[in-house]
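User: What would this chain look like folded?
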Amino acid sequence: MSKKLTSRAEDYSKWYNELVVKADLAENSAVRGCMVIKPYGYAIWEKMQAELDKMFKETGHQNAYFPLFVPKSLFEAEEKNAEGFAKECAVVTHYRLQTDPDNEGKLRVDPEAKLEEELVVRPTSEAIIWNTYKKWIQSYRDLPLLINQWANVVRWEMRTRLFLRTAEFLWQEGHTAHETKAEAVEEAQLMNGVYAKFVENFMAIPVIQGVKSESERFAGAEDTYCIEALMQDGKALQAGTSHFLGQNFAKAFDVKFANKEGKQDYVWATSWGVSTRLMGALIMTHSDDNGLVLPPSLAPNQVVIVPIYKSEDDFEAISKVADTIMADLRAKGVTVKFDKRKTHRPGAKFAQHELQGVPLRVAIGARDLANGTVELARRDTLTKTVVALNDLTDTITVLLEEIQEALFTKALQFRDEHITAVDTFEDFKAQLETKGGFIAAHWDGTIETEDKIKALTKATIRCIPLEAKLEEGLCVYSGKASKQRVLFAKAY
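Assistant: Here's the prediction, encoded as structure tokens.
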């Protein structure tokens, strides 16, 4: 297969799909709408998972695991949540197959093996978790309960795209219980901030923290906090959400506790999550027509060493130097790979590592050994420099930090240049079609206006920014009074 990608300018969607496959991140599976995450793609997800897990534990959370299957009666208990996910649910009705007497060699569902109660394959875990919490929480001494799980979920999407929207995906979901409303709100805000910190510091993606409008909230939540990012094609991507659930699930599952006054009260709840959709955000924020561009903090290999040689003696000499370089870099916490495959020529190796977004590439040939130098190539800028071997480790550690910062700065500049304030609906539509990005516009606060704008433009309210200043104005569509601008965009 050719490694050359369709250009982003020609067809952004096709470029993305090709890149995911050709960079060996993931591929479609035999199950409609599901994906196989390949080792290189999973290595990136593992680094994301490790950093997030560390941040969760630093904020007092513990990991647990809950069942994949949710009895239908439990799923129905919180009405808004059930209605919100009903159309995406996969349901297990039978527990056994048998040989089909009418079709030799084939199997069919055993009609005698019908479940007494149908099981929903979790689209989210609030129902099964809150049914469990009823047994765990009796007193204020049991609170706060701060639990996270790493899991897979199933949402039967009709239109799928690798990482961005698949029928099954990987994620983490936090579910916490609190003594007071103030504590739960603080928790939801805290975890939204944790997500923002991770995405900005590790993924090098600038985000806007905000609150969702009523129609965009998580089903069953009283408030949904979010982080919104902007992709290179001018579309927004919801990178994470954190929900203040009030007492809705506590009341649905009768989760009460004895407070400090000895009275029974319902607990206050939150839930929050990010998923493998972050992989899509990572790809679309930084990558180019040559392939992936990975921030060093999440690259499986931050440095790759490629030998260039004609004889076995040259290869042996280069290998000894490469071993020393690797030991020095690993001592500094740098992940490094020596690509000593003899089945690929140097040019093919360069192309592969460029396609897969390795931040720095070191090329060493016999002449380099004689000169005591190496060639160092940056993936983000595609620039090459000659570096003395004695300076290589220090140069690489400095450059990795520089690349991480440069990627964030570039993405931030793009994001800020694509936030446009408008005051008329004509300008709203024109900017959306020609420039894209976030449109900062006044909104009258009604679902009716929000729905009409979405129907006419396909743009939705991505968030009401937490740091937005109050500003008297008129709704861009209805002309009614508004107290602040909100961010609209077309989105993934």
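The mean pLDDT is 97. If you want, I can go into more detail on any region.
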